[in-house]
Amino acid sequence: MGFEGSTVTPQIRKLISEHHIGSILLTAKNLKCTPTPPYRMTSMADRTPAAEQTTQLCLELQQIAHDAGHPVPLAIGLDQENGGVNSLFDEIYIRQYPSAMGLAATGSKELAYEVAKATAEEIAACGINLMMGPCLDVLTNARNQPLGVRTFGDDPQEVSGYGIAFMKGFKDAGLATMGKHFPSYGSLEFLGSALDVPTITESLESLSLNALVPFRNGIREGLDAMMVGGCAMSSAGLNVMHACLSEQVVNDLLRSDLQFEGVTISDCLEMEALSHNIGVGGGTVMAINAGCDIVLLCRSFQHQQEAIEGFRLGLENTMITKERLQTSLKRVLKLKAKCTTWERALNPPGLSLLSQLQPSHTTLSTKAYNSSITVVRDKNRLLPLTNIMEPEDELLLLTPLVKPLAASAASQALSEQATNGSPEPQIWERSASVMSGERVFRELGRSLARQRSGRVLHTSYTANGVRPQHENLINRASAIIIVTADANRNLYQHGFTKHVSMICNMQYSSGGEKREKPLVVVSVSSPYDFAMDQSIGTYVCTYDFTETALTSLVKVLYGEFTPAGALPGTISQSQKLSQSKQHWLVETFNEERDSNGLDNLIKSCIENNTPGLHSELSSATSNSFLLRNPDVLESHFVVRNSSTQALYGFCSTYFFKITGVGVIGAIFVDPGRRKLSIGHSLHNRAIRTLLQREGAKRFQLGSRLPSMYLGIPTGHGGERKRLRSWFANLGWNTALSRSVCSMVARNLATWAPPEGMAKSLQSAGADFDLVYGWDYAGPVLDHIKTNNRQGLAAVYKMALADPSACGIIRAKRPEDGAILGTVVLYNMHSRLAEYVPAMKDVGELAGGISSPVISPSAGEFSTLLQGLILLGVRQIKGQGCGACVLDYRDGFYGAAYFRGGFV
Fold first, then answer.
1. Between helices 777-784 and 792-800, what is the axis angle to 10°?
2. Which UniProt keywords apply (predicted)?
3. Does residue 843 come out as left (phi exceeding 0), alpha (psi in the -120 to 50 range) or beta?
4. Angle at Cα 500 formed by Cα 569 and Cα 531, nearest 5°?
5. By C-alpha distance, which of 478, 515, 519 is closest to 389?
6. Is residue 296 part of a domain?
7. Which structural domain range is residue 555 located in?
8. Of 213-222, 271-280, 301-310, 341-350, where does mean pLDDT reach its minimum?
9. Are residues 731 and 757 both part of a single domain?
10. In angstroms, what is the C-alpha Rg of the chain?
11. Is the CB of residue 116 less than 8 Å from the CB of residue 169?
C-alpha cells in the first residue's frame, strides 16, 4: 500500500501497526526535498535533501513495523527507472541515468548492468529493498501506447538481454527485482471503451513468440517478482477484463506455462476502470484467487480500507482459503529473505554511503549519457555545428511546451516556486505566448549560448503552428535546431517540424540561388518521431530531456565527442533507415599505448559472440597481430577514445614483400559501437596504406599468418549474409571468395592411416624425410616460390628459424633429389603457434601442420599432398599429442585433408 505525503501519516501507521501490512510502495509524492523551519527556503542549506528525507522515512516505517511485532521487515518498493521516471530525485546525492531505451542505444549490456547496479545502490542506501523493475515490455505498438522510452525497444531478444542485465545489477546491489508489466504493455490498443481500458488484442500464440520472450527469459534467470498489469485482453479464446484478476493469466499463463515460482504483484486496484467495474473489495478477492501474492493499492485510505474489508469477508466466506494464503506467504517471506533483515532495515546507511558513491556514479552517469546520444542521420554533415556556422552567426532553438520530467531540476524549481507562493503559475498550466520560452528547455538554450560567441535565439512553439515570429527568426538565423518530444502523440510537433523543414528547403541566397538552410531535429523522448522520415536530413535522439541528457546533447552538437549511440531494436535494421556515415579519427597502433586497450577490445568481442559459436579471436592477444618479420611490412590502426584509452576498433595490415600481396589481416569493432562507421573508417585507412606499398600486385582479406581471420567470416545464416554484404559494398568480390578454416583431428591415440594409403604413397614415386633448421633453407625456399599463395615464405622462415619446435617434411624425387612437396610441422611451444589461436583452443597437447606446397611438376599431386599430411599426423601422434591442427585449409586442398580424418 502507498500513502500521501512525505512523512508518516496516521493512516499508514495504522495500516502497518494494526493491519500488519507487509509491503509499502513509495512514489515521487512521498520523496521530496523539504524545507526546514520556518518552511521558506533561502539556500540549499535550508532544505533537507530528498535522499536524507527518504532514508528517515524508510527507517520510521520499518521502526513502526518492528515495534508492532512484525516478524520480518517491510518490503519497501520504488519505481526508479531513470530517464523521465525517477520517483526519487536529489540533484546532490542521487544520480540521473538514461532511460531504458537510452541505455539500449549505447549497445552495451555491461554499461546497462553498471547503471542498474549504481541506481540500486543509491536507493538501497536510503532503505529501499524492492526495485519495481526492470521493464520487460516489448514495444510492438510504438505509436499508440504510452511506454515509449521506458522499454528497451521492439526486439524481444534485445529487450531480454538488457532486462536481464538490469535484473542482475539490481540483485548484485542487494535489491529484490520485479518484472513488469506482464503480459506486456508494449502492444496496447485504446479501443475507446467507456472507461478507456487499454486492451491487448494479440493472441496467446502471438504473445508467446514475441512479447512473452523477455518475461520467460527473466524467469529463467531468477526474477524475484512479477507485476501483472490491469489491462484487458481480447482475442480468440481469451476475453479478460483485467489481467491481474484473471486466473487464466496469473495461474495458467504465468505460473503453469512460464513456470514462475516467485511473488506475483497485482496492478493498482484503485485504477478507475477496475474500481468502477468491480469494486476494490471484490477486486482484492479476485486478485488473490487469480494467483496474486501481493495486492497493490497506491494511495486512497478509503480504498485501502475497502480492500482489507473485502479480504476479511473473502476469508470468512471461505472464498479465500488458508492454504491459498500460506502459499503466498511462503513466496513473500522467501523474497524478503533475499533483500532485507532487521539489521539492514533499521540501519540504512543514507548520506554517508551516498557521499562515497557520488564521484564514481557521476562519472558513470556522464559516460552513459554520452554513449546513448544517437545521430540517426546527418546527410549534409551539419554536425558539429562548427562545420557550418561562423562565430558571429545566430543559432535558433525551437522547443515545444511540455510538462517537465519528474527527474528534472527545472520541474523541482517550479514546484518550489509554487510552494513559496510564487505568483507565476507553472508553465504547463498557463497560456504562454509563442515568444515566452519554456523553462525545462531554457537551460539547453543557455548551454548552447555558453559554447559559442554568436547569439542563440530561443523560443517555443505550440499547436498554433508556425507564426510570423517564427518565420522572422528562421530567416534571421544561420541554422535551426527543433526539439520534439513524442511527436507521434503530439501531432502539432510533427506538423510544425515539417513546416519549418519546408521553409528551410526554400531559402535563397542574396544572389538568388537556392541555398538550403541547415536544420537539425532533436528528439528528446521517443526516437520514433522522425526515424523513418528521410526528408529530415539531420536527426538526433537523446531518449529523455533531463538536464544531464541535454548537457551531453550540447557536447555532441559542438563536437566535443563523437556520438556512439545507435537506435535500438529492429528500427535500426530497417533498410529504409539511412545510418549516418561518420568519419572517425584513425590512428596508427602504438604498442606501448594501445596493447591493454586491444586486449580489452578482443575480450569484449569474444564475450559478445553469439552463444555456441566459435569466435575467431578466441585465445588471441594484442601480441598475436605483431609478426616482427623483416620481409613483412605491417601497419595496424585503431579508433580510440583519447581520454579513456579505450579502443573502439582495430585493423591489421600486412604487405608481403616477396609476393607483393597486401593483406587486411583483421578488422573488428567494439560490439557496443557497431553500425557507426568505425569499420568503414578503419577499412578506408587500411586500403590507402596498402595502395602506397611499392610493388603491390594484389590485395586480399584474411591472412595465413597470423591466422586469426582467414578470409570473410563465414558466420551463420543472416550474419554470414550481412558480413558478405558489408565487404561487397566496400568493393570486394565476395562471389569468388572461397571458404577457409582451421581443422582439428582429435583422438590421435586411436588414429590410423586410411586403408590403402601405404600403397598409394609407394606409387607416388617420392621419398619423404623430416628436416630442421636453416641448413635446409635454400632448396625449401626455392621450392615454395613455385606457389604464389600469400604468407608462405613468412611461415617457412619462422619454422626454419625455430628448429627446436618446428620441422619441414619434404617429398623428394628419388632420381635427383628435387623437392616435389613440403609441409611445415610445429608444436605448441613454437613461435609459429603464437599466431595460430586454434592451437590454444584445442584444450589438450597438440601439434600443428601448416602450409603444404606441391610443385607444379609433380605428377601425383593429391597423393603427395595426402602423404605429407598423413606423415605429419603420424609424427605428431608419435610425440604423444592427442590432437593435430591444420591451421589454414582452403577449398583447393580440402579433399586431401578430409580423407586424413580431420573435422
1. 170
2. Glycoprotein, Glycosidase, Hydrolase
3. left
4. 5
5. 478
6. yes
7. 373-573
8. 271-280
9. no
10. 34
11. yes
Amino acid at 81: E
Together in a domain, 852 and 761:
yes
What would the grid cell of residue 187 be?
502492444
For the chain, the domain total comes to 4
Classify residue 739 as left (phi > 0), alpha (psi -120 to 50) or beta.
Answer: beta
82 with 195, same domain? Answer: yes
pLDDT higher than threshold 50 for residue 549: yes
Residue count of the chain, please give it. 903
Query: What are the grid coordinates assigned to 416, written together?
Result: 518550489
Task: Please tell me whether the overall predicted TM-score, pTM, comes out greater than 0.70 for this model.
Answer: no
Exposure pattern of 520-542 as b/e (b: 16+ CB <10 Å)?
bbbbbbbbbbbbebeebbbbbbb
Nearest Cα residue to 260 out of 282, 293, 306: 293
Instruction: Tell me phi and psi for residue 739, to 5 degrees.
Output: -70, 135
User: Does any domain span residue 603?
Assistant: no
Whether residue 358 lies inside any domain: the answer is no
Does 778 share its domain with 733? Answer: no
**Residue 283: its H or E element:** helix 280-290
Q: What is the pLDDT of residues 750-802, one digit of tens each?
A: 888 777 776 777 777 788 999 999 999 999 999 998 887 777 888 899 899 99
H/E element, 883: strand 883-890
- Are residues 731 and 763 located together in one domain of the fold? no
| Pairwise CA distance, residues 367 & 96, whole Å | 11
Contact 113/165 with Cβ under 8 angstroms? yes
Where are any strands of DSSP class E within 753-818?
A: 767-771, 806-812
736 HSE (CA, 13 A, CB side)? 5
Helix axes 156-172, 213-220, angle to 10 degrees: 30
C-alpha cell at 567: 537506435
Contact partners, residue 575, CB within 8 Å, separation at least 6: none
Do 625 and 476 fall into the same domain?
no
Q: Is residue 586 part of a domain?
A: no
Q: Which of 108, 106, 131 is nearest to 121 (CA)?
A: 131
- CA–CA gap between residue 207 and residue 214 (Å, rounded): 11
Backbone angles phi, psi at 699, to 5 degrees: -115, 155
Looking at residue 457, which CATH number applies to its domain?
3.40.50
Do 746 and 732 lie in one domain? The reply is no
Cell of 412: 523541482
Query: Per residue in 466-486, pLDDT tens?
Result: 999 999 999 999 999 999 998
| The residue type at 689 | T
Are 724 and 747 contained in the same domain?
no
The residue behind cell 515495534 is 67
Does position 438 have pLDDT exceeding 70, yes or no?
Answer: no
Q: Which three cell numbers stand for residue 682?
A: 578503419
- Cα–Cα distance between 604 and 607 in angstroms, integer? 5
Interatomic CA distance for residues 866 and 872, integer angstroms: 10
pLDDT at 422 over 60: no
pLDDT at res. 858: 76
Q: Is 843 exposed, middle or buried (0-12, 13-18, 19+ CB in 10 A)?
A: exposed
How much of the chain exceeds pLDDT 90, in percent? Answer: 51
What CA–CA distance (Å, rounded) separates 747 from 768? 25
User: Degrees (nearest 5) of the Cα angle 608, 614, 616?
Assistant: 85
Name which residue leads in pLDDT, 276 or 513.
276
Gap between the Cα atoms of 575 and 596, Å rounded: 37
Place of cell 523539504: 34
Residue 94 maps to which CATH number?
A: 3.20.20.300
The CATH code of the domain that includes 761 is: 3.40.630.30
Q: If you average pLDDT over each of 211-225, 742-756, 820-834, which comes out highest? A: 211-225
Q: pLDDT, tens digit, for every residue of 52-87?
A: 999 999 999 999 999 999 999 999 999 999 988 888
Comparing 862 with 714, the larger pLDDT belongs to: 862
Contact 794, 627 (CB under 8 A): yes
In the predicted structure, residue 610 carries a pLDDT above the cut 70:
no
